[in-house]
TrEMBL record:
Single GO biological process annotation from the record: innate immune response
Cell compartment(s), UniProt: Cytoplasm; Mitochondrion; Nucleus
SMART domains found in the cross-reference section: ECSIT_Cterm
Family stated for the protein in its record: Belongs to the ECSIT family.
Keyword presence, Transmembrane: no
Source organism per UniProt: Parelaphostrongylus tenuis
Protein name: Evolutionarily conserved signaling intermediate in Toll pathway, mitochondrial
Residues of the ECSIT C-terminal domain: 230-351
GO CC field: mitochondrion; nucleus
Keywords of the record: Cytoplasm, Immunity, Innate immunity, Mitochondrion, Nucleus, Transit peptide
Highest taxon of source: Eukaryota
InterPro entries, A to Z: ECIST_C, ECSIT, ECSIT_N, TPR-like_helical_dom_sf
Length: 360
């Protein structure tokens, strides 16, 4: 754990003591002063310096005074945890849970075990654990020990952390479309996130993803676009009749964990007839036509995963800028892999105000 900044801690301690002296004359104002004092632990830090070190310094400054109001302080800290950009840091949650006093809130008799002992404190602890769960932070044995030392072995908050330690590792890799290890702990660029999103949305294992970087005169303009297409989709483009209308629609949105990625779709009208997915087979004892039926079924065309009921997906793509000009460059690059696009009518429909029709 990073050691808190001593200078920031002294600043917060001095500010908190002056705030309490200011509102000590009137009882109602003193209560309001305490609320301001708790929030000032985090508001006093300038936005450029809001990081893990200053957040831990605010927690240490609160613990050194040994005041009451642990619940109010933790609830206030949870409001600022995303502003500091540390909502995925396990050490921060450990520091917040360590604010609770140890041993005082452990049930000592059967009556206290039956009813919810120290309900506000336990509900506050559950809020911290819920925040960890929502942000995908997996607890370890130390978090479990901190909660047990504060609330006992089988209390309301302790059951929550036990369930988290049991289920979260099991459900961590439950998404078969996304490998979290490629995203967690990595600062991916928009182009890399687009590649992960296209791979996540492509059910065909033969899909190849290509990334093209554009060269501009301005070095700060890092242009790029990506497209995902399989061999089956290229065969579908070859089988389309001449002057068939093909549409490029978007942008649509998909989330790669907490990151939003915009993508586009190239599609055409359905290329296969409506087929009942649930075929009703009747068993017949007459086996004289068994071989001919098997032979006809062997050469029967099977609908691919790209041929949906209302449209056929021909390609997926992502661009650094969502406009028709960038989509035209994306289309030109895609035509190099699919020469048959030159005999099709491609319509770009990215801008709803302007319907741009292009004959590629």
């Amino acid at each position: 754990m990073i050691a808190p900044n001593v200078g920031v801690r002294r600043l917060l301690l001095g500010m908190s003591s002056s705030g309490l002296r200011q509102f000590s004359s009137d009882g109602s104002q003193a209560q309001h002063g305490e609320l301001v004092h708790i929030s000032q632990h985090f508001q006093a830090v300038p936005p450029p310096k809001r990081n893990k070190e200053t957040f831990l310094a605010a927690i240490s400054a609160f613990k050194e005074n040994k005041p009451r109001g642990h619940v109010e302080f933790i609830n206030t800290a949870l409001k600022y945890i995303k502003e500091y950009g540390i909502h995925k840091d396990l050490d921060v949650y450990k520091a917040l849970l360590n604010v609770f006093p140890k041993g005082k809130m452990i049930p000592q008799n059967a009556f206290q075990r039956i009813f919810l002992h120290y309900p506000m404190q336990q509900n506050c602890c559950v809020k911290v654990l819920d925040e960890m769960e929502w942000n995908g932070v997996h607890p370890d044995k130390e978090v479990h020990d901190i909660v047990v030392n504060a609330f006992g072995e089988w209390n309301f908050a302790t059951k929550k952390i036990k369930r988290m330690m049991y289920w979260m590792p099991k459900l961590k890799h439950s998404n078969k479309y996304l490998d979290r290890r490629t995203v967690e702990g990595h600062s991916l660029s928009p182009a890399e996130l687009a590649g992960v999103a296209l791979k996540m949305m492509s059910p065909d294992p033969g899909t190849s993803i290509s990334l093209v970087k554009l060269t501009h005169r301005d070095p700060d303009d890092n242009g790029w676009f990506a497209f995902a297409q399989s061999l089956t989709q290229r065969e579908l483009i070859r089988s389309l009749r001449q002057d068939t209308e093909v549409f490029v629609d978007g942008p649509f949105r998909v989330y790669v964990m907490e990151h939003q990625v915009q993508y586009i779709i190239m599609s055409c009208p359905p290329t296969c007839d409506d087929v009942d997915e649930f075929e009703h087979e009747e068993f017949e004892e007459d086996f004289s036509t068994f071989f001919s039926e098997w032979k006809n079924e062997k050469y029967k065309r099977i609908r691919s995963v790209h041929e949906q009921k209302h449209e056929t997906i021909l390609a997926l793509g992502a661009m650094y800028r969502q406009d028709n000009n960038t989509a035209s460059m994306w289309l030109e690059k895609l035509q190099e892999e699919n020469p048959n696009l030159s005999r099709l009518k491609v319509r770009l429909r990215l801008d709803k105000s302007v319907l741009h029709s292009a004959q590629v």
